[in-house]
Specification:
This protein is mainly beta and 375 residues long. It has one domain (4-373): TolB, C-terminal domain (Neuraminidase, 6 Propeller), CATH 2.120.10.30. 6% of the residues lie in helices and 38% in strands. It contains three helices and 27 strands. The longest helix is centred in the last third of the chain and has 12 residues, at 250-261. It starts with a helix and ends with a strand.
Length: 375
Amino acid sequence: MNYIKFLTAGFFIGLVFLFCLAFTSKKATTNPLITANLKHTTDTLQYPSEAHLKNVQQLTFGGDNAEAYFSFDNKWIIFQRTQPKDGLMCDQIFIGKVPKQGEAFTYKMVSTGKGRTTCGAFLKDGKHIIYASTHLGADTCPPVPDRKQYGNKYIWPLYDSYDIFMADLDGKIVKQLTHSKGYDAEATISPDGKKMLYTSDKDGDIDLYMMDLQTGEEKRITNTPGYDGGSWFSPDGKKIIWRASRPKTDAEVKEYKDLLAENLVAPTNMEVFVANVDGSNVKQVTKFGQANWAPYYMPDSKRIIFASNHEYKRGFPFNLYTINEDGTDLKKISHDNGFDAFPMFSPDGKKLIFCSNRNNGGTRDTNVFIADWAE
């Protein structure tokens, strides 16, 4: 599930957790290959203090583009995109080859163009992808919750029509992986390609589950009340990392359960957690308050990169930070004044991909950026 439309909508972006797709236009469906506009605005592509980012390149131009992740062979990118100008009224899944420095990023839609999608990932074979979609529930976008009914809080919908599907690189669905009546989404793949880690509310709470992709057998990984999501495996395959809310007071627990009963969650207070790959030895990494999320293990499987707004009581900007597993050595990596999030290292550890509101000409657009990583 993507944090963009919900958070930035409240600020000046319109963060992406609203996902809204109705129908793709004739142009979008008959011409699947799109070339990004190379005309840059005069905004800042990179800030002088972003010393770890080299050769920053903007890949998308316009719309809401988020959750961009590498394939296992470092050659492809999968991401989700909303762009009303192209008939994309809410998120659909796209893939494209990683361009050489200075070349245009071209991409094509690989989801159905129906319903709302989120959280794409490549399989280890390089021939298939997975993503969550509501298209079996309806061809149109599911309704967005009215925040005014909830005190204008940031509310995410947990659409019970979300299921996870496997498709080939031409968009043909070859398998439905989840079938429960409930929210099944936010899936990622283990480094050996055998396991899928995902989020579901099928057992009454919002928890992590791990599925064997060959047998379909699965195990519930988390059991603590609260939202558990946005999970990833460490590069060495020994650990997992995720974001979680942990309501503590009676009032917090009641609010969480009341919203969950309406298939909603308010993710304004989240922290980063890690555990062994079997769910044992759970440790809370951050204790900053506010929203600490989109965590990803760095190539050494020891340090962590994540997005956070903890420095700002007003709730933004969101920037990228690195931290050790034990919560020490916090370092600020990015410095945009709006939104930097969804960081992921390429499997070879050489590049970082992330999404940001930088360089958007003063619009609410969120775009995909790639950079060489410098220690």
